[in-house]
Design brief:
- It is a single chain.
- Helix content is about 60%, strand content about 15%.
- It has 12 helices and 9 strands.
- Helix 1 packs antiparallel against helix 4, helix 6 runs antiparallel to helix 7 and helix 6 packs across helix 12.
């Protein structure tokens, strides 16, 4: 059922209710008016006839009363709102007044007659040699009332039809923008966010149009933001793949060469020691030992670079052991800082290994970046890392420190690439990222990630 039909139906029902109320009031007033008119006419008629009866009794020479009344009534003719009948002493009818001819062509319906017809009043007068009966008659008044009521009903019906026609046309014109609004909504629903609505003359529809236009602009911006997030996630994924490839190449290729150099240097040193017959051989052995030491430093440095590029334990042992190794490494490098790692019991049994590479590497990078920030800038002495899995499968990661903190409201997080990178990683996982900090009160980072959102 359309809005236009509902409004038109409402106007129709209200109009009908108004007509019924007005008609009820008119019928009530008409009934009262007819009753008072008939009662007044009956009293006047009875008083007039009483006067004639008294005059006839006081003047016997005029003749018998019933004869006098018969002549008087014959000359009187029709009496409005009254029906007069004269009987002789034996009950035979001597005279009956004629019926009203007023609006005799009008035939009111029976329901109208029942609604407005007053109670019939009957007055009898015993006279010499007869009986006079006067009964109230509202037939003429009812026909007159129905004629006026019928005209009023015709006018009301014409007004009702005209009103409903005008309302229908007005609603059709006023609600015409709804079709355009619904069409725009359908196009937006199908993905066409370039749809825009024009200005409408009615302020309500104009407000709706502006709201839909702003919503389309917001959705367009959100779509672009989501596309950028997907692009960022894709870039990060490719970066991780390049890091893994580079780490593998460093480990396999450069590691072999460094190992070969070390092997050759050790062999040279051993031969020099075996043939140590002069100063030259001692110098050769010393130089070979320097090469061995340099090869060891290159090998250790290479392993540190490989660990930074891609922790091998992440692929082999899972996220739990990799986080423990990361915390252990930072603890060795910063012995004055107390770094604590808490994993919930349901993650201790290797469940983290089944989270998938995407979640694992992103959580690892977030923890790594948080530790770097806390150790380099926050001057923290205690860092607490918690990773738990709640009943609905959601992962909750929190990193807290007791460092110098910062004023979050004054910090432009979009210019701090560490915070921005963490936020982008979390949003790519369809999670939530919140940071709380204040000067002198440390920093707390809370991250919620749905279980395996990207597989």
């Amino acid at each position: 059922m359309s809005l236009r039909f509902r409004l038109n139906l409402l106007i129709t029902l209200l109009s009908l209710a108004f007509i019924l109320v007005v008609g009820s009031i008119l019928v009530t007033d008409t009934r009262i008016s007819i009753r008072e008119r008939v009662e007044a006419a009956s009293r006047v008629t009875v008083q007039l006839l009483d006067t004639v009866i008294i005059s006839s009794a006081l003047n016997p020479e005029m003749g018998p009363t019933h004869v006098v009344l018969q002549g008087f009534l014959a000359s009187l003719g029709y009496v409005r709102s009254s029906h007069i009948t004269l009987y002789d002493y034996q009950g035979y009818e001597l005279y009956s007044s004629p019926e009203s001819t007023f609006k005799s062509d009008v035939n009111p319906p029976e329901w109208f007659v029942k609604l407005v017809k007053p109670k019939v009043e009957r007055v009898e007068r015993r006279i010499r040699y007869g009986t006079l009966v006067v009964e109230s008659s509202a037939a003429g008044s009812i026909r007159e009332a129905w004629a006026g009521f019928n005209q009023l009903m015709l006018v009301g019906l014409a007004f009702f039809i005209i009103l409903n026609t005008l309302v229908y046309l007005l609603l059709s014109h006023s609600l015409k923008p709804i079709g355009r609004i619904l069409g725009a909504i359908n196009r937006m629903e199908q993905g066409d966010l370039t749809t825009r609505l024009p200005e409408f003359p009615l302020p309500e529809f104009d407000t709706i149009g502006h709201s839909l236009n702003r919503m389309a602009e917001s959705l367009t911006a959100e779509r672009l933001l989501e596309e950028n997030r997907q692009l960022t996630h894709l870039i990060q994924k490719h970066i991780e793949e390049e890091r893994r490839s580079l780490a593998r190449e460093l480990h396999d290729e450069l590691g072999q060469y460094v190992t070969a150099i070390k092997t050759f240097a050790v062999a040279i040193a051993n031969k020099a020691k075996a043939n140590s017959t002069g100063t030259g051989m001692a110098d050769i052995a010393s130089s070979a030992q320097v090469i061995v030491s340099a090869a060891n430093q290159i090998y250790d440095g290479m392993h540190n670079i490989v660990r930074q590029l891609r922790p091998g334990s992440l692929d082999n042992l899972g996220l739990a052991e990799t986080l423990k190794d990361l915390v252990s490494t930072y603890q060795v490098q910063h012995p004055t800082v107390n770094i604590q790692l808490y994993l919930s019991e349901n993650l201790q049994s290797g469940n983290l290994h089944s989270l998938g590479e995407t979640i694992s590497i992103n959580l690892y990078r977030i923890v790594q970046e948080s530790l770097n920030n806390a150790l380099k800038y926050a001057q923290a002495t205690t860092i607490e890392i918690r990773l738990i899995k709640i009943s609905n499968g959601e992962l909750q990661l929190s990193i807290k420190d007791n460092g110098i903190g910062m004023n979050i409201d004054a910090v432009d997080q979009s210019r701090h690439f560490g915070l921005l990178g963490m936020r982008e990683r979390v949003q790519a996982l369809h999670g939530s990222f919140t940071i709380e900090s204040a000067p002198g009160q440390g920093t707390s980072i809370c991250i919620n990630v749905p279980d395996s959102p990207l597989g």
